[in-house]
Give the backbone structure.
Amino acid sequence: MTDTRDPALVLRKLHMQMAARRRVIDKAESYYDGAHNLAFAGEKFLEAFGGLFDAFADNWCQVVTNAVEERMTVQGFRVDQGVTADTKAKAIWEDNELDLQSSMGHLDGLIAGAFYVTVWQRDEADGTTAGNIPEITVESATSTIVECHPKIRKRRTAGLRTWLDDDGYEHAELFRPEGVYLFRSRSKQNGAIIDAARTRWVVEDLLDGADELDVNGMMPNPLGVVPIVEFLNMPRLTVSRRAGWAAHSELASVIPLQDAVNKLLADMLVASEFAAYPQRYLTGYTPDDQLDALTGKPTGAIIQPSFKSGPGLTWWLEGEDAKFGQFAAADLSSSVASIELVVQHIASISATPPHYLRASADRLSGESIKSAESGLVAKTRRKTRGWGAGWEEVMRLAGKLSAVPELANAQSMETIWKDPETRTESEHVDAITKKKDLDVPGPQLWEELGYTPEQIARFPTMRAQMQLEGMAANAAERARLATSEADRLRRASLNATGGNPIEL
């Protein structure tokens, strides 16, 4: 069914939705970067210390996010069309530097709740065209958004990608199945602050692509579908009240606990500054008035006693009731215990292994570490299932643009992820050896050992080369042995004839 809506209205709708969720995304990104506001601070605390702790944060948000991202590595694709299709998919992946781009996208997706991947024709004018390989770019959720069919979510009806150019204008590409519409803001924007409600759009000036764009600023879409693939973190069937959309940041449940850690740690620092040392006191002593040297009358000033500590110094006062005493230093162990309790809650809520949050890994056995990481491994596998389907959609779109039918028409495709489990090499090899006894094919075992599809594809050639080298080495060894045997016979003949060789 053809979409008859005005592209300008669709653009305005998506732009406002994208701007509405920036507040949530910006907050999550700030907490990941360690730019925390000190929450739970009362008025008296703020009056006493002001902005002293504004730049301070004990950042656990970064640890929680990185623990998942570092276990999400795409190694390749397995396509039902055979090894050739696998190789072509990997070539497209490497040409677009997606090893790096995918890592950045995964990290942004965990922090913000989503990231996007756009597949489009490569611009030949920039001189970077490599054959017919398309251009694949990973986009942030702050600048990209897609619209899905209200009934069939898998069907994308529109997609928007925006950016603020050096000319000061905000530019937009509205992707629809029939074409791509190019717009820019009517007026220049004030820095990176985008006011979606007041932004007015005009059709992009027809400059370089004048022969390809119509009067509405539309470029034909050869794919027939919206080429922006959405990757949601912990997607929901309904809109999240906290996030305002169907995605969920990995830090949403951690941020309140992070605030509690910062408050407790700030309190502990204050106590360490003002109450961490023993405080001495003096009772039963009335300071004398200071007398004027000429008149001998009191000046109104009080003579305060001065007591300094040091070797050979003694404190004394005249007066029977004068007594010295000392208050004990503040005990900071309760603050430390409170912080450790909150950090344990962070570990439980986020499924982050406890040894990631405290320095105790050296006291854990291999089995203990594996058990502690089971929750993190399960969470990582759940994310790779969803995001793997997104990467497969990206490869299908890339196959259409690059005219690779093995990819474009692949009915079955699988994203190959690196094993997220932590295992010792000996344990891993032992398990693979037992599977070999069960007659599991070699290529499957190699894959489970962590070899990439490209390495596995080179194995037959490497084996053949090793066989040739072995045959050459055996031939050289046989020649050496034959020469050695001939020399031995010659020496034997010389010894038998007294120096005269015997004809053999």
